[in-house]
Write a structure and sequence with these properties.
single chain, Tetracycline Repressor, domain 2
């Protein structure tokens, strides 16, 4: 039998605590399921797939995230932050420029981040010398006088991407840009390799395979090949 409320409200706290625990558990399940589903099917996957993977009703998902855009933005922000942290760790802990860049790529690919790269990061810009439709599915670049890249707004804005998200994306591009510039200045990176090329490697070297061991082996092998393609060779 439920105890009567006391003057200090302790009975109310006891009664509502399990609800808070359940809500937190459901949130964790939804976020984990969203990462898995979006990682496998892309950000176009329906909310029903996320709910099914989380083993909750779709109404539970919408109570936590009132629209799919909100959920996509949450996952994209977390992945952007994680990639930025990985890039900073490589930049700060590796003295050799090539080791720093390759460490960042290996860490990012192993974490599966390539399958969840935010849309506004993958569309870095639009190449001036090519039509946008020609490379619509790849990270694209606009060459600046300094050889660097800058974010270019999309029209229409991609689902789940809000203008305020550009700050996190810009931080990621800035840190990865430092890794690229160091390796290029040391003569260890091909001079034509850009930040968007590095992001393309992360996205390409993270295939979604049903067997975890096969996926890890395939990612490692593919990344080895791609790293060889990025590295500068003596003429």
């Amino acid at each position: 039998m439920m105890s009567a409320p006391t003057g200090n409200g302790r009975a109310d706290v006891t009664r509502t605590t399990p609800l808070r625990v359940d809500a937190q558990r459901n949130l964790e399940h939804v976020l984990r399921a969203a990462r898995e589903v979006f990682g496998e099917l892309g950000y176009g996957a329906p909310m029903e797939d996320v709910a099914r993977r989380a083993r909750v009703g779709v109404g539970t998902v919408y109570r936590r995230f009132p629209s799919k855009d909100v959920l996509v933005r949450r996952i994209a922000e977390e992945e952007t932050s994680r990639l930025t942290d990985q890039a900073r760790a490589a930049l700060g802990q590796e003295d050799e420029p090539w080791s720093a860049l390759s460490r960042f790529l290996r860490t990012s690919v192993a974490s599966g981040a390539g399958r969840l790269l935010p849309p506004q990061v993958l569309r870095v810009g639009v190449a001036e010398e090519h039509g946008a439709s020609e490379h619509a599915r790849l990270p694209q670049q606009r060459k600046q006088p300094t050889g660097e890249l800058r974010l270019v707004p999309e029209e229409p804005v991609a689902a789940g991407v809000a203008p305020e998200d550009d700050a996190g994306a810009a931080q990621l591009l800035d840190v990865v840009g430092q890794l690229v510039e160091r390796a290029r200045a040391a003569g260890e990176l091909r001079p034509d390799v850009s930040v968007s090329d590095v992001l393309l490697v992360i996205a390409t070297a993270a295939p979604a395979l049903p067997d975890a061991a096969q996926q890890a082996a395939a990612s490692a092998r593919l990344l080895d090949i791609l790293l060889e393609g990025l590295r500068s060779r003596p003429v």
